[in-house]
Design brief:
Blueprint (H helix, E strand, L loop, with lengths): L2 H15 L4 E4 L2 E4 L6 H9 L6 E2 L3 E2 L24 E7 L5 H17 L2 E5 L6 E5 L4 E2 L8 E6 L7 H12 L14 E3 L46 E3 L15 H10 L3
Parallel strand pairs: 5-6, 5-7, 7-9
Antiparallel strand pairs: 1-2, 3-4, 8-9, 10-11
């Protein structure tokens, strides 16, 4: 093997070693174990972020909630072919493998909804996926350049990418929906008083869909707890139900996108 070939292989292996835990190589994805639930990963990544965040990964809103806005001001626009094109750009700071994770997360929207993520050309409203100081997004379409932050060190995972893109489409966290008290118990005593605002119920349009413990938008049991292991969210009536999964969008997540955007 000549020197140039050896150097190319060495550089490829170095890029792989620095890549995210979910990687694609020649069309095949390899997933390494992810020990942290989606909530823990997001909260740890956003600790100390310079952004003003609510619920720890929503940029403080400057516009109306996209789920409850008037005249569709918070929605991305649908064309005459019933397709919602969402222009996006990805920062050059992301590696090839990071981009593969992001694009694979987007592919579920493309295949199961009328949302189409398209490379931005001259569109004035678009999302810019950047390697900033955490995992966060604005809620719904805000107009102009709209940053979705996916820090390379903690956010470029399939489930987290889909979680933040759902925020950009207009979805709140599941445990803050208007009827949540029928389905989960919030253990206020297990969180600091200054964290309680993260559990305020929102005036959400639930679209006549059931509460979804398996939603990619549901936080885990110990979110914002004052010490490890203390539950802040307990499912009712069955306390054994899994919440805070990180694999990807549930069937109900997909249904809600299609209902919201009239797919």
């Amino acid at each position: 093997m000549d020197t140039r070939a050896s150097l190319s292989i060495l550089l490829l292996l170095l890029d792989i070693s620095q890549a995210s835990p979910l990687m694609r190589f020649e069309g095949v994805f390899v997933s390494e174990p992810e020990p942290l639930d989606i909530t823990t990963r997001i909260l740890e990544s956003n600790n100390g972020s310079s952004e003003v965040l609510i619920e720890r990964d929503l940029v403080f809103p400057k516009t109306r909630n996209a789920l409850y806005c008037f005249n569709n001001n918070g929605f991305w626009k649908k064309d005459s072919n019933n397709i919602v094109e969402l222009p996006y750009m990805v920062s050059g700071e992301f590696s090839y493998y990071d981009r593969s994770v992001i694009e694979d997360a987007m592919s579920t929207f493309d295949s199961k909804t009328c949302i189409r993520f398209v490379a931005r050309s001259t569109q004035s409203d678009y999302i810019s996926i950047e390697n900033k100081d955490g995992c966060y997004s604005s809620l719904g379409r805000t107009g102009g350049k709209q940053v979705v932050s996916l820090n390379r060190q903690g956010c470029v995972y399939h489930g987290i990418v889909q979680h933040e893109l759902n925020h950009a489409l207009g979805f709140y966290h599941e445990q803050t929906r208007s009827d949540r008290d029928e389905y989960v118990k919030i253990n206020w005593e297990n969180m600091s008083p200054d964290m309680a605002y993260n559990f305020e119920k929102q005036n959400t349009n639930n679209q006549k869909t059931p509460y979804d413990y398996g939603s990619i938008m549901h936080y885990g049991r110990t979110a914002f707890s004052i010490q490890p292991g203390l539950e802040t969210i307990t499912p009712i009536p069955d306390e054994t139900v899994e919440i805070g999964q990180r694999q990807g969008m549930s069937n109900t997540d997909i249904l809600r996108i299609n209902k919201l955007y009239g797919c």
